[in-house]
Amino acid sequence: MQTPETVEVAATEVPRDGQDSPHFSEDAVLLEADALQALIDGLRDDGYQVMGPMVRDQAVVYDEIQDVEALPSGWTDEQAPGRYRLTQQDRARFFGYTVSPQAWKRFLFPPERRLWQAERDGTNGSFHVTTDEDDPPRRAFLGVRACELAAIAIQDRVFMEGPYVDPVYAARRRNVLIVAVNCGQAGANCFCTSMGTGPQATSRFDLALTEVLEDDRHVFLAEPGSDAGAALLDQLPTRPATDDDRAAARRVVEEAIDSVERQFDTDGIHDLLLDHLDHPHWETVAKRCLACTNCTLVCPTCFCSDVEDRTDLTGQTAERWQTWDSCFTLDFSYIHGGSVRDSVESRYRQWLTHKLASWIDQFGTSGCVGCGRCITWCPVGIDLTEEVEKLRAAVTTPDSPSTKDGGDRS
Amino acid sequence: MASPASTSEKPKLAVWKFASCDGCQLSLLDCEDELLAVADAVEIAYFPEATRAEVEGPYDLSLVEGSITTPHDAERIHKIRRESKYLVAIGACATAGGIQALRNFKNVNEFVALVYAHPEYIETLKVSTPISYHVFVDFELQGCPINKYQLLELISALLNDRRPNIPPHSVCVECKRRGTVCVMVANGTPCLGPVTHAGCGAICPAYQRGCYGCYGPKEAPNTAALADEFLRLGQDHAAIARFFRTFTANAEAFRKESVAHEHEV
């Protein structure tokens, strides 16, 4: 049932950076694990607020760190649909976890922000507007995964590379230095290999580290990805990497590739979803879906927001705020007369078809990077890869109630 | 609220109490810093918790706390409605019947006989009902107790003739905005957040507790799917019935879910 057109769409849906065999730069250098503090110090001396992984609330979260002591050394996470548990590993790697509950998104696209405020001038009805000058801190993101780099690239496209640039996002994004860390293992909900986004960071970073913990050594292979990254490395005690070092790093990434269990067949996904908008399977999902918004808010690429006006009691001042929003709320599609998507099935379908299909039409790539957050952090464990597979199976079974040609719109 | 119901410049505010604990009225008094601004913006015409002064109706805005539990109150609410331009029900009692609506699941006469030395003096209704069951309500502000900032927002919106920013989505939105890790996913703690109306700021999950559902049902809650997940987390039907039967036990979605699990016990 594939048409040539379908295949073409599928081939362009994700940025494929040649993830097939791990390759490391000739410029790579070796950094002893003991020197990681020097890296953090170097960033701080350069005026960066260093954001990195730490253990809090029984999870590895991203927040400001001062030193290596804050890093989740020896901790890892076990993930399953609707389930996350922090456990300790025998191997004391600094970056032995997969991805945090929430994406780097909150630092670039803040959950709440004031856009402007207005104040009345006396009683003549005029008012003046003050725009908040967003003066974002210089931040270094330490520990960005390959799937997260892909997610940031997608949000860059949405917020900065179209005709209308979001000034707040752009200002924050310009002030960020990215230290990527390659994954050495995959979680049970990871499917970056299916989406072509990982596990190795291949571009769009300032510095990429691969943590090598072997019998007799604990080191990082460090690859510069920008002048800023190279300048940072120059300040650190490093030595040029040997072919053996590169081979050791390759084994780390290969271990991550080999441990990816989840496979997601994206072949023809655009038409598969958009040709079956009335399929009864959406209703099956809706019975389980809480429409709680968690999947969208943990998603590193979801970018929807709401705008609301707030006034004080006197009516002298008004403020306009932008807040995270989600296509799972009724208010999201509320227009005169009511909500356009008043059923949960229509809202789940909207999210999934946008993320995996119409996103391709809109931005040229899939909106999914395969990080698995929406699967892990769904309180009832709805798994988008499973739902797409079920839909695929249902529509390719000859006696299935496929409604491709119109179907019953009930 | 462009044209006040009174001849005075300021809109008249009245605060009424029915069957309740007074906690929601206290939320208004708790405004402290903002209280002077409130008093400046409106004429507090009737508010026994705060002042003995009493100004006759009609009122521009009536805030009604408490549920209807007696024949007398069932009459009184109609008089208040007639005297009020806007009537807003505040709190779990006024919007859902409150904790006292637990009587709705039993025979109230048995409680009366157990509790009072002279049951014959007690004149009470069989059920505790929200204000909207009796009169038209312009807005329902949920919460046990209500959030004072939401109350200020509501008053401010009415004073400025705009829609209040009081979103009916889940508590999960508040957890995610403040960066709280989900206690249900990360720790297996049963949490009513996914079916509960936002407004409290997601306090309990921030302290590693599951949401108790104090703010009542969110818009279109899928309580059955959440209850199924609670079963998978090891809760039994009796426990699930109790989860849904607290401060907003009589809210339709929570009532149906608790009854469904009570029947499974």
How do the helices and strands line up, and which of them pair or pack?
The complex is a heterodimer of chains A (410) and B (265).
Chain A lengths: L3 H8 L17 E4 L3 H10 L3 E8 L2 E6 L10 E6 L2 E6 L16 H4 L3 E9 L6 E5 L7 E6 L1 H15 L6 H8 L1 E6 L10 H4 L11 E8 L2 E8 L2 H8 L3 E3 L2 H16 L10 H6 L6 H8 L5 H5 L6 E7 L5 E8 L9 E2 L2 E2 L4 H20 L9 H4 L7 H13 L14
Parallel strand pairs in A: 2-8, 8-9, 9-10
Antiparallel strand pairs in A: 1-11, 1-12, 2-3, 4-5, 6-7, 6-14, 10-11, 13-14, 15-16
Chain B lengths: L11 E6 L5 H7 L5 H7 L1 E4 L12 E7 L5 H13 E7 H6 L11 H8 L23 E3 L6 H12 L11 H8 L4 H5 L15 H4 L16 H10 L4 H8 L7 H11 L3
Parallel strand pairs in B: 1-2, 1-3, 3-4, 4-5
Helix pairs in contact in B: 11-12
What does this structure look like?
The complex is a heterodimer of chains A (410) and B (265). In chain A, 31% of the residues lie in helices and 23% in strands. Chain A has 14 helices and 16 strands. Chain A has two domains: 4-258; 269-403, no CATH class. Chain A is globular. Mean pLDDT of chain A is 91; it is low at 1-18 and 402-410. Chain B has 265 residues and is α/β, with parallel strands linked by helices. Chain B has two domains: 12-159, Rossmann fold (3-Layer(aba) Sandwich), CATH 3.40.50.700; 171-262, no CATH class. Chain B contains twelve helices and five strands. Chain B has helices spanning 23-29, 35-41, 71-83, 91-96, 108-115, 148-159, 171-178, 183-187, 203-206, 223-232, 237-244, 252-262, and strands at 12-17, 43-46, 59-65, 84-90, 139-141. A five-stranded parallel sheet of chain B has the order 2-1-3-4-5. In chain B, helix 3 (71-83) links the parallel strand 3 and strand 4 (84-90). In chain B, helix 11 (237-244) packs antiparallel against helix 12. Chains A and B meet through strand 5, helix 11 and strand 13 of A and helix 2, helix 6, helix 7, helix 8 and helix 10 of B.
